[in-house]
From TrEMBL:
GO biological process, one term: DNA integration
Domain of life of the organism encoding this protein: Eukaryota
UniProt KW Manganese keyword: no
Source organism (scientific name): Macrostomum lignano
Keyword Glycosyltransferase on entry: no
Protein name, as recorded: Tyr recombinase domain-containing protein
InterPro entries the record matches: DNA_brk_join_enz, Integrase-like_cat_sf, Integrase_recombinase_N, Phage_Integrase-like_Recomb
Length: 346
């Protein structure tokens, strides 16, 4: 059997519109965050392609047919149980949105998922590697810090590592769509510390709360190479960000007098990939996510409590709610301890 992807997604804009009148589509689409919608539509495409090939009614599958899909995913594109669960949830959403009488909550499907979990647990997962302080120093040596781009990238790298920021908060998807990227107005830049206020994220899609993180100055007598605050000040002066509009994404470079360009995800990924290569770090093992992961890993090794790390990186868990009111204080205390650990490492 040959598996092909159908070009038009069964989304709110394509051939399948769940019987909704066209003028209602934007309203219903807006219920989903952009990234969620992209992920749903990509999984629906896979499901529809599978159904078309296997002659299955996509909106009225039997439990056995859903198990066949699970089996297909296991052998073709998955190495993680969480991915598998996401595929099944997206089919459930598709069926619900289509008012299909079928639900996927059957005993057989649950059994198949459990079986898949056990089988997948035996396959080693290759996650992106964590970047530690020595890796960061290697990256720094390969950057041209005197250029606007070099200064912006270095500041982005350190902010991502120290504040354990998600890639979506570090840079925008495109020049026009700043999305969840941190803006200049989200930064409070002082001489001794900086605060970044993250308005939107995967776990905070409507901005009900503000996640605030501290970037400390770790310099003692001389400028420390891994100081996130000094990197920010350098980035600000190289790219004249003090006169940029507050709505400009924080990680932007000066193009010409009075004109800035934000670093997009594609641009940063390209630059980082090249940088990893120059620094002798295998490109397939590291990505932008290695910053967030690296900051958390180093903090853990330095003895920072897991709850404090969750508070800094805004990892979703029940415990995070406990920090809602006092998060900046808790996070700042923990970040200062990470600062001490970085200083002690050299
Ligand atoms: Zn400093």
């Amino acid at each position: 059997m040959r598996w092909v992807l159908l070009p038009p997604p069964p989304c709110f804009s394509g051939a399948v519109s769940f019987g909704l009148p066209t003028e209602l589509l934007p309203l219903v689409r807006a219920a989903f965050a952009a990234a969620t919608l992209r992920s749903l539509e990509s999984k629906w495409r896979t499901w529809l392609a599978f159904c078309s090939e296997a002659k299955i009614k996509a909106l009225k599958p039997t439990p056995t047919q859903i198990c066949q899909f699970i089996n297909f995913l296991m052998h073709h594109r998955l190495s993680r149980q969480s991915n598998l669960q996401a595929y099944i949830s997206s089919i459930a959403t598709l069926l619900r949105l289509s008012d299909s009488p079928v639900t996927i909550d059957s005993g057989l499907v649950r059994l198949a998922l459990r079986g898949a979990k056990r089988l997948l647990a035996a396959i080693p997962v290759r996650r992106k590697a964590a970047l530690g302080p020595s890796h960061l120093l290697r990256l720094r040596r390969c950057l041209q810090l005197q250029t606007g781009l070099g200064a912006a990238l270095w500041s982005l790298i350190l902010a991502g590592w120290w504040a354990m920021l998600r890639a979506a908060n570090l840079c925008s998807l495109s020049q026009a769509n700043v999305g969840t990227a941190v803006l200049i107005s989200d930064l409070r830049l002082g001489l001794k510390e900086a605060w970044i206020s993250v308005r939107l994220s995967k776990t905070n899609q409507f901005g009900e709360r503000r996640h605030v993180v501290l970037l400390p100055c770790i310099c003692k007598s001389a400028t420390a190479p891994l100081c996130p605050l000094c990197a920010l000040h350098h980035h600000f002066s190289r790219n004249s960000l003090d006169i940029a509009p507050p709505s400009q994404p924080l990680f932007s470079t000066l193009q010409s007098a009075g004109s800035w360009m934000s670093l997009t995800a594609a641009h940063v990924q390209r630059e980082l990939s090249q940088l990893f290569h120059q620094a002798g770090l295998p490109r397939n093992r590291f990505s932008m996510h290695s910053l967030r992961r690296g900051g958390a890993t180093f903090a853990r090794r330095s003895g920072i409590a897991i709850e404090d790390i969750k508070a800094i990186g805004d990892w979703k868990s029940d415990a995070v709610h406990l920090y809602a009111g006092q998060q900046p204080q808790v996070a700042s205390w923990a970040v200062c301890r990470i600062g001490a650990a970085v200083q002690a490492a050299f």
